[in-house]
Please model this.
Amino acid sequence: MATPHNVVVIVGSLRKESFSLKIANALVKLAPAPLKLNLVTLHDISFFNQDLEATPPADWVNFRETLQKSSGVLFVTPEYNRSIPGVLKNAIDVGSRPYGKSSFIGKPIGIVGNSPGPLGGVSAAKHLQNILPGISGPIMGQPEIYLNAVGDAFDEKGHLTKEALQKVLQQYIDAFAAFIEKQNK
Ligand code: FNR
Model:
């Protein structure tokens, strides 16, 4: 039987009605049993400031410990101006320090880009693929996932109603579960 693995899901939007948050919630439900997805939102992560590195704020310490205890990290992010939102970059900077002791090190990574627009957040996902290799474990290469037109995929309670999207998410999370299992052997 496959080993249970706790994976941190980092949502790159602070918006209450965020599509990224709704997609992350849908993935929690679709994840096969050995994969436990723990959603992390970034509201409480204070700005990175190198002056504070010697005495890091409690929210940085908590975030880093959550990452360290995990078996992997899944980013679900929108695209802002053809890149990742500032709050997400801030959280990555916090998690990447102190120098040489990134809390992402060795953690297998998944990236789910999305947008209500036509391009599915592909540029944001590609920027994550540039940022992470020096501070994380391997990024799952296949399947890639860039979800476009997510604006009509949920009902008023935030439940996923678009069948085609559900199918793609199921395929992705099944592949990601297998990737996490393999990387944590
Ligand atoms: C956007 N949006 C956007 N969409 C996109 O596909 N490519 C982009 O470059 C941008 N740029 C951008 C910049 C800023 C500052 C905002 C606020 C928005 C639109 C974006 O995809 C949309 O607002 C999503 O709904 C944001 O994600 P959440 O909050 O729904 O997860």
Notes: The beta strands are 5-11, 35-40, 72-77, 109-114, 146-147.
